[in-house]
Amino acid sequence: MNRESIKKSNSLSRKGRRDSFYILYLMAFPGIAALVLFSYVPMSYVLIAFLEYNPIRGLLNSSFVGVKNFIEALQDYYFRQAFINTVIIKLGQTLVTFPFSVLLALFLNEAIKPVRRVIQTASILPYFISWVAIATIFRNLLSPSGGLVNEILITWLGKQHPIQFLSDPKIFRLLIIFQDAWKMGGFWALIYLSAITSIDPSLYESAMIDGANRWQCMWYITIPGISTTLSTMFIILIGYLVLGPFEQVFSQYSPTVYSTGDIIETFTFRLALSQQRYSYATAVGFMQGILALILVILTNKIIRSIEEGGGAF
Amino acid sequence: MHSKVENKVYSRFSRIDLGLFLIYGVLLIVFVLTFYPFFYELFLSIMPYESYISTPVHILPRGFTFLNYRRILEHPDLLRAFSISILRVLIGTPLNVIFTMMCAYGLSRPELKYRNFLSILFLIPLYFNAGMIPYYLTIRSYKLMNTFWVLILPGLVTPMWFFVAKAGLTKYPKEIIEAALVDGAGHWRIFWSIVMPNNIPIVSTLAMMYGIGHWNEYFWTRILVNRDLWTAPVYLYSLLNAHSVIQGLGLGVRIEPQTFLATIASLLIIPVLIVYPLLQRYIISGLTVGAIKG
């Protein structure tokens, strides 16, 4: 009797377990479905890079052209220009933003708490603001007619002509590079700062007793203390070298700055949505995706060898 | 002897002071450079037309008016754009948070078969994406173009925030869930009455980041829906590149393009400023997990 009831309750609980087990799948299902529908199904559309896709004829009736689109892209002057621009801009952004944010973190670490809090609050704010609003702010500040910077240059400093910050190709690229430090610097500094706070404080105390000054503490304790985080972050950033800052450029560029500011993403966008060259644009995007994949995997391997137990993600 | 010691103390002090001077100087410059542009944008938006016109260099606020805001919010197109933006945040964010948490909970339970495979499914899109055109054609094939849901569904569960949620839930003590299971509670009930209320920091991080994402996104909205469904940033984007549009809106009277753009941008910035204290609190917990470990 007793044994039977135990058996019964056991089988009940097993049934209950199985039921709740299905519930788990049901709970995970919407997210997985969205992922498959919007991240994996598009991957199958990569196929059109090998076709001469015609939206009217559809996928099945478009003719197969092999790697023609890829070869055409490699010979395309404007694609090469966009590719070079992307790498220059990303490299520039990395080389400016990275040291800037490390320095900001180091300096914030030295400041007294209320100051640190105020500066942090101000410096992370741009990270949360839409690129469109940022573009508007910079337009307002830099516009040749009515922009604050040009108003100062002309009215106070006696310059004859306004500087065309947003339509001069040379200045535009520099603007895009330094703007990244402005928008993202505070955010990255926050990450480095949280790495700094995990350094053992007794290291500083004993260094102070030995007579080390502020800069020596920074150089011999803080920087080595966060070196793993720093190298990991730097390598991650290098891994994304061929992925351009699309929203940033798209919200601010214009035909006059294509020669220095056009990146692969904006180039692809124009090919597809204003020229309807879907297959060619897909081929360009696909090449970029593959190149990015290779770079990220490669850099992840390097990170793994630096720190035991895993790379980014 | 005495003076030597004093000298040493003095020199050390002065060196530290100089260092501090440099540090606070740099921090002050960073503060001005990041804070001033927002300040500038906000005071332009409340500057009356007369004082704008009569000022040669607009470096400090002069005068005060809400007229610019009134003009914009009275305009049907802009009012609609802001309403859609707000709707998108209010409808999209809870769905994002709930489904991301459910998904993370499901995939963090050891009894779920294939959970490693399913996690890898979320990992791959972080490394490779098909590109703009395949995505566009996919959305088109689903007949989602020009619907409100195209603003919500594609990003329902983002890999990045999925991993943040999963990392957070993995830290949550398993014994509590096991005990509830033994007591006969189902996973559905455990999720709603134990997991969700006890992981408020994760839930808040997700809500903040998804919410900000909805509020700020402009590119795909511009591509995938027509003017009737444009959100505020899309509208602002279209105005940025066409001053003629500003005249076309019938706002040309006594409103400067500079002030006009500043007012719309301020309307995008102010809501972020309002939730900013919350944002700052949760960003550290969310992003140190997300960006460094994932």
| CATH topology label of the largest domain in chain A | MetI-like fold
Number-wise, the strands of chain B total 0
Looking at how many chains there are and whether they match, the oligomeric state comes to heterodimer
**Rounded average pLDDT of chain B:** 85
User: CATH top level of the largest domain in chain B?
Assistant: Mainly Alpha
Give a short synopsis of this structure.
The complex is a heterodimer of chains A (313) and B (294). By secondary structure, chain A is mostly helical. Chain A has 14 helices and 2 strands, in the order αββααααααααααααα.
Overview of the molecule:
Chain A is mainly α and 313 residues long. Chain A is built from 14 helices and two strands, in the order αββααααααααααααα. In chain A, α3 (77-110) packs parallel to α7 (169-196) and α4 (113-124) packs across α7 (169-196). Residues 1-12 of chain A have low confidence and may be disordered. Chain B folds into two domains: 2-45; 68-293, MetI-like (MetI-like fold), CATH 1.10.3720.10. Chain B is 77% helix and 0% strand. Residues 1-13 and 290-294 of chain B have low confidence and may be disordered. Chains A and B meet through α1, α3, α4, α5 and α6 of A and α1, α4, α5, α6 and α7 of B.
For the structure shown, list the relevant keywords.
heterodimer; A: 313 residues; mainly alpha; MetI-like fold; two-stranded antiparallel ribbon; 2 strands; 1% strand; globular; disordered N terminus; B: 294 residues; 14 helices; 77% helix; 0% strand; disordered C terminus
